[in-house]
Amino acid sequence: MVSGAAGFAGLPGAVAVSHLNVYDWEAADGRSGGTPHLHLTCSEGYVVTAGSGAVQTLTATGSDTTPLEPGALVWFTPGTIHRLINDGGLRIVVLMQNNGLPEAGDAVLTLPPEYLTDPATYAEAVRIPEGSEAEQATAARRRRDLAVEGYTVLRTAGEAGDRRPLLDFHRAAAALVRPKVGDWRARWKKGAAEAARQTGAQLDLLADGDGRHLTEARVHARLPAAYGRFGMCGRLDTYDVMGAPTAPGEASGS
User: Is the pLDDT reported for residue 245 higher than 60?
Assistant: First the structure.
């Protein structure tokens, strides 16, 4: 192998990919869909493949609603609280930056403040238990409803010009994930950072007129490693493209 030039075998750009069937469960506000949450270090993208709906978003600059229909491409950066709305048969291919980090918990749900006080309290509130599909669906729906409750407070305050609840949520989210940052940094170094470094090594070779790394080309193929997992926003078919384990109760992206 050419040193540092062609060893990364993950998806292009070290992204994660999954197929998402958005929940059709109705929430207290009469809208059906997923669990509002944000990511701390990962941008997220949607390619809509079927159905219709929208993604509600909330940031420090305000709230918005983006319609979703087949062919739509939408993406947003870390810190964007997002809630998927399913108006009928909404299916999405989800792309996540920094493969390995979303699977390790790079997301915090917009639960009411009493559930954000410490990692153990939060983990128990969002846990999907081992057990029957019915038990898992009940837990997923309960945490979705809690997150919608908290999100409604944040959005209502923001629309009234009060950013304090959102900023308080940001601080709580950062505190919750702080113990995980060392693990995330190690995953990032093996994934996205390594992919970028190897591109640099390939450019160095090409600048010298050297194409040796081209002899190391490989083809990779995968079927989903899991079907119909209860994710934050719907049922997920997920792929293992880097061999990184997924923590119990957590899933890539939405």
Answer: no
